[in-house]
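Here is an idea for our session: we take a single protein and study its fold together. To get us started, please write out a protein record for me. Once you have written the record down, we can walk along the chain together.
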Amino acid sequence: MRLISPVPPVLAVLALLLCALSAPTARAAPPASEEWTAAPASGGGSRPSAGGRPCFYLEGAPGTVLEDRLSLTNPTGAPLKVALRGALAYNNADGSFGARATPDPWIALAAPDVRVPPDTRADVPFSVTVPAGARPGDHPAVLVAVAGGREVDIRLQVRVSGPTLSALTVESVRVDKRHHVIRYALVNRGNTALTPRLAVRGDGVFGRALDRAPRALPVELLPGQRVELSEPWPHPPALDRVEVRLDVTAGGGARSSATADVTFVPWGAAAGAGPVLLGGAAAAWLAVLRGRRTRALMSPQTPEPERELAQTGARR
């Protein structure tokens, strides 16, 4: 671990901004001027940069050991004890990014706990050992830093060298008419993290009911993960039958489509018109019955019993 003191104000602000970008699950943040930060140290990783990095990115073949450094900044006037661990990453059901409670066996930190003096930055080394039999593709992970009741998760993207496959499917499409949304699921079937793009179209009996151009979704879909998402549809047609089609694409040629049918009926108006329609149907049926009775009475044919009686009287 390397200590650097004191922290220039510009670097402290920069580290804070990087922490905000790379820690989607930071909790209970006090005022920025009093907050400690955790971020990738500059100049490290498989793609070194003189500036800051929003997350860690390491790439190597199976059997290699990759190294990098985590930068912890304590701008306060009191010492800070930070607990560190490496964890596997996953998508929550709604697509948000999360860290599992179980440790990532690939990650080894120089120390599980780090004491950072006041107005000091500490760079903590860590390594990632890629197993010899690791499959090619992305291995999403997280470095978790905890101090003072606050947790910061810093993304750690490990790419194992070898063939990659970008593939996804869109599934379980349905229209939730009560909440005015289209619900669907995305599943990453490949071995790379994906940023999906969604296009929506709805074709009804009376024409195009919905048409939205492709746009990037605010989700990074990790390999093997499934997320449940929704698309707002605040103004659907009042009366129509619509086929809703979702087209999803992502980098690397990933593409998938799915459809769902939905019928819109103005039930309030239908309920109001129901008695009228029922009354009309009943009146029509009674008219049919009356017509049949009238035709029977006016028929020139004589009923069979009366015909036999008349023939008997004539013979007498």
